[in-house]
Each structure stands twice: as structure tokens, then as C-alpha cells.
Amino acid sequence: MARIQIITIIVSLLFLFYIARLIIKGRLREEYSIVWCTCTCILVIFSFWRNGLAVMSKLFGVFEPPNLIFTACIFAILVYLLHLSVVASSLHKQNKQLAQDIALLKQEVKNLQHK
Amino acid sequence: MPALLSALATITLPRYYHSEIVVINDCSADNTRVIAEQYKATVLDLPINLGIGGAVQTGLLYALHNNFNIAIQIDGDGQHPPSELVKLINHYETTGANLIIGSRFIKKQGFQSSFFRRLGIKYFHWLNKVFTGQSIFDSTSGFRLFDKKAIGLAAAYYPDEYPEPESLVFFSKAGLTISETPVVMAKRNGGQSSIRNFASLYYCIKVTIAMFFSSIRKYS
How does B137-159 read in b/e, with b if 16+ C-beta sit within 10 Å? Predict the structure, then answer.
């Protein structure tokens, strides 16, 4: 096994371990961890399977195997960023509704106290 | 603020109206709450800064929960003289429209804003015509009267940033009747406009996009 394979396998496994730790400690929600776990698993697979990249490139009709990596990675990152923007938008909306409810409730509580 | 509130307190509404003044405090740094309470206004304190749209919606939510028949939005910086408020109510009674806008430009009286701002407002007038087919001259005016139907709709959906032109598209899509009445506005006597310099470019782009999507969105 080539040196680079061993390095990538170790790094990927460490990364997977770190994600698991974040989930256990409650700092990462499971639904967001799916993407990260999948990515790491793919990395591990390709670290073991050295010819995998060449096979995949041929399958997709890409001449230079590294180009496949860049295209796939950038696409995945873009999709994930969009997903995060959607999450941020919904948090924004929920935040607003909470703030409005708090303002109205505070006023109601004050009203009740004065009675 | 104090001048505005005292003027509001002394205003005489036609006949059967029972009024309540509600001040929305969107994380203001000054003593808004203390002043407002001196004038026996209801104060709604937002725990975090929501911006104009969220603040206006809070007021409308209050109106909805308390079963108000009409709600009038009025800026806190003195741009909208309370004496003009009666005009909105009168216009509401004669036309029965769901949304009444106090407009600076029908009679061209009072403070008319700067050249570039007027240019922008002309642009929105044109955009509104394109998207809604209605001709509203002062689509950025925040001096507005909402009837019960409009309150209900805006409480459910109201844009956050620069809500005025966009909400018009939404309201007319929802089938509300919108009507304008001439009012005299003053120059703001405190605070800064939320729309300045480069922000104005962003404002134009954001509102254009928002109006476009409002016009093609389906409201159920």
C-alpha cells in the first residue's frame, strides 16, 4: 500500500471520528452530519481503491481524472451551501416570529399585572 | 417622538372610532419606552432588532389579536403629521378600499424628497404598474391604513426589508383594493433614512427582485 493511501485513510478516519464526537456531544445535528459522513466514506473508499478514480473518469467520460474530482467537489459544495442558505432563511423567519410573539406576550403580561 | 405622540393623543377621530396608540420599539437605543408610556401608548418591545418589516408586522399582529377594524401605520420620525391621519380614515370611509396609502405626490404638497429619491420612487411606480397593473404614485409611502382583511393578510406575510413596494404587489395579488389619498408629509426630524448611498442601489435591486417574485408567487 502506497504511503499516500495510508495518509488519506488515517486522515479520513480521524475526520469521521471527529464528526462522531461532535454528534455525541450534541454540537452537530444528525441531519447535517449525513453529508459529512458520506463525503468521508467516499474518501475512504477511494483511498483503498486506487484505480477507482480512473474507472470513474472513464465512466463519466472525463479525460483527466483530477478534473472529475474538482467538478464533483465544487458541485457538492455549491449544493451544500445552497442548503445552508435555506436553513439560514428558515431560522431567520422563526427568529422573527419568536421575537414578535415575545413582544406581544410581554405586553400582555404587563397588562395583566396592571389589572 | 414626544411631539408625535402628543399630537396623536389630541387628535379627534370622527364619530364612533375608539383608538389605541401602539408604539413598536425595535431595540431603540433611546428611552422610547419611557416616553411612550408617558403618553399612555401601548408599547411593544421587540427583544431583537427586526427591521421595519418585522416591526410593522408586529403592530399588525397586535391589531389582529385585539380584533381591530383598522390599523394605521405611522412613522416615528415625524414624517407623517398626525393631523393627516383623518384624511386616511375619511378616504377609507368613502372608498371602502382594503388598503389606503397616504401619498405625497398626488397634489405635490409638502416635503417632496430629494431628486434621486423621487427618481427611485418613479421607477417603483413604473414597476408596480408592470406587476400589478395598478397605478400607485407613492408606493414607498409608509403612511398606510390597513382594514381588517389587509391586517389579516399582512400578519401572515409581510416582507422584512424595505417592505412597502413589495407588499403592494402582494396585496393586489391577494385581491385587495388599494387606494391612494393625498397627504402632506414633513421632513423627518430625527434619525436617518434606512436608505442611503450605496444602500440605495441594493435597495433598488432587492425590491425589484422581491416584487418580481411576489408577482409570480402563488398565494393560497
Answer: bbbbbbbbbbbeebbebbbeebb
CB A96 within 8 A of CB B53: no
Per the rule left: phi > 0, alpha: psi between -120 and 50, beta: everything else, A2 is beta
* Nearest residue, CB atoms, A99 vs list B42, B50, B65: B50
* A90, A92, A96: best to mutate for the B interface, most B CBs within 10 A: A96
pLDDT one-digit tens code per residue, B112-138: 667 777 787 788 888 888 887 777 777
Give the one of B44, B50, B160 whose C-beta lies nearest to A104's C-beta.
B44
Please provide the size of chain A in residues.
Answer: 115
Between A and B, how many residue pairs show a Cβ–Cβ distance under 8 A? Answer: 38
Let me know: does A53 contact A68? Beta carbons within 8 Å: yes
Q: Residue B45 region, left (φ>0) first, then alpha (ψ -120 to 50), else beta?
A: beta
d(CA B34, CA B40): 10
**What are the pLDDT digits (tens) for B160-170?**
888 888 888 88
Lowest mean pLDDT among A53-57, B90-94, B128-132: B128-132
Domains of chain B: 2-216 (3.90.550.10)
ipTM of this complex? 0.80
